[in-house]
Amino acid sequence: MDRVIKTICAVIRNKPNDITAYEDLFTLLCESIKTEPKETHRLNGWLRDCITRQMPKVKDVEPFFSLYKRSLLLDAPDSLDAFMLYIEINRDPEKRFYQPRRAVLKQVVDALQALTNDELDELFLSMPPRVGKSTLMIFYVAWLMGRDPEHPNLYSSYTDIITKAFYNGVLEVMTDKDTYLYGEVFPESPIVRTNAADETIDIKRRKHYPTLTCRSIDGTINGACDAQDGVIISDDLVSGIEEALSKDRLMSKWTKVDNNLIPRGKGKTKYLWIGTRWSMIDPAGIRMDILTNDEKYKGYRFKVINLPALDKNDESNFNYPYGVGFDTLYYQRRRASFERNNDAASWLAQYMGEPIEREGTLFEPDDLRYYNGVLPDGEPDRAFMAIDPAFGGGDFTASPVCLQYGDDIFVPDVVFNDGEKGITQPIIAHTAMVHGVKELRFEATKMTEAYKDGVGEILKSEGYKATVTSKAAPTNKAKEVRIFAAAPDIRERFIFLESGRRPKEYERFLQNVYSFKITGKNKHDDAPDSLAMAVDMLNYHKAEVRIFKRTF
């Protein structure tokens, strides 16, 4: 057999237009696939490469293309790469998912193949939004179920919305015969049971633990699903930046993962971690640390793949053909938008795969107080604004609207805008009038006195009466000390709008507060500085005036 194969391979090299030699080799490969699978797949890949190189050079492409399809089909049950190429082969090239993205995603596919082939025990994957990782996982799980229907698999995310979409996506790949050729690859692995409510799929036969179970991390996992010798997939277990900024919430999430998700594996179960790396102490980060530093995992096989939006030359890694990806300008504009909003940390986490480091931050989201947008009954005891003005150029004009009810300071609105003074002065004045603010204090320098006067003129022109004052700004060092000193009052007395009720500008204001570090390494500290000014106004007492009897 080996001699015959070598002879045919020599003919293909010497007579690349002779389709007969290609067909003869493929016939032999079909016979040897069961006895020598590894070598057969290697030779079949070589054959397919020869076909691919030759098709553009021949007049009659059809015989070569037909053989190319059959070659893919031979490999597809054992090769994820061949599987994804084959099941979409009848689609128009621009409508295919995998082929336009293959040059970039092949390294991920190879890692998934290694995980499935027991060459890895665990795989970590981080990629930017909308570049194909979720759809890739759908294809992977469909392939995994078809080739090995007996071993159960578990897919988990932070919400049922995502797990439901994943469940439906897998079903679509397996059942949409007009789009995908799944049934041709796995004709002996039919779906025998589905349950949309439980998000489960059984392949080939009904089992106590289905071939696939999809569950949110907060859903019923213990006792309801298992993944012995299968794969456990964790996809975006952290809901977003607000959860990522809370150490307590992250540790609570890890406890659920460690107690409920990881133990569902047994035997040769593999683990796949996917999603935005928000924090070093998110579940994926803690798991990496354990695998890296715990002596009990010495020799454990794991791999980390991070594909950032921009490469080291600041060029897009995902500029796919047919316009299905994102070019360099798109990502550079996205980065500029994050930087403009003073949220570079989110850009690094979501698009570059670099977790947010929050060691040394002064304010944690869980430390602050929040309300649902409904103010107490009656008029506030006091309505005031502390304004940290700016003139654009990357700095933000920042000001909380402070409504005092007893000891509590409600913040129904904020100004947080990096526009020039011609933009921000009217915004300050309008915000003050809308909320009935009667005291406005500006941080004063030689430059900002004119800014204060401009706001005063706008209020005067509108016939609105308010006290507009200024107070000298401290040095940079004193500013940080002042913010630190004001922190207890900000945490205990100020009440901010809760998540889901905040406008975009309000959200950016709080992100700026969360990112302030007591180490002094702060590119921008406008929002926490304005809150510290508000605390100063709160604690400022005017001289007391009394009438008393003259003593002389």
Describe the structure.
This protein has 552 residues and is of the alpha/beta class. The chain folds into three domains: 1-75, no CATH class; 76-190 and 216-307, Rossmann fold, CATH 3.40.50; 365-539, Nucleotidyltransferase, domain 5 (2-Layer Sandwich). Helices cover 44% and strands 15% of the residues. It has helices at 2-14, 19-32, 37-54, 62-75, 80-87, 98-116, 133-147, 160-175, 182-185, 241-244, 247-261, 283-293, 328-340, 344-352, 421-434, 448-461, 476-493, 504-514, 526-539; strands spanning 122-126, 153-157, 191-195, 200-203, 212-216, 227-228, 231-235, 265-266, 270-274, 302-306, 369-371, 382-387, 397-405, 408-411, 414-417, 439-444, 467-472, 494-497. The strands form three sheets. An eight-stranded mixed β-sheet has the order 3-4-5-2-7-9-1-10, with helices on both faces. Strands 11, 12, 13, 14, 15, 16, 17 and 18 form an eight-stranded mixed β-sheet that branches. The protein has a two-stranded parallel ribbon with strand order 6-8. α7 (133-147) packs across α8 (160-175) and α15 (421-434) packs across α16. The radius of gyration is 31 Å and the shape is elongated. It starts with a helix and ends in a 13-residue tail after the last helix.
